[in-house]
Design a protein that fits this description.
The chain is an all-alpha fold. The chain contains two helices and no strands. It has a domain of 33 residues.
Length: 63
């Protein structure tokens, strides 16, 4: 339900803050998942993984 700013500007402001917080949280979760993935893949590489693939994954994760 859309709330016009002229009716309740505080509500509109809180909605924007909530959306920003949600996006930041999702990006943080993505970064944490990527870090865990890289640690697992580098410490226990799956069969058939080559060293250059691991290096490329680590470089992408650290960029």
């Amino acid at each position: 339900m859309a709330v016009p700013e002229r009716v309740c500007p505080e509500l509109v402001e809180h909605r924007e803050e909530d959306a920003t917080t949600m996006v930041a949280s999702l990006l943080g979760l993505w970064a944490a998942a990527e870090a865990v993935f890289l640690v697992v893949v580098v410490t226990v590489p799956p069969p058939g993984f080559r060293a250059d693939v691991l290096t490329a994954l680590a470089a992408v994760g650290l960029a």
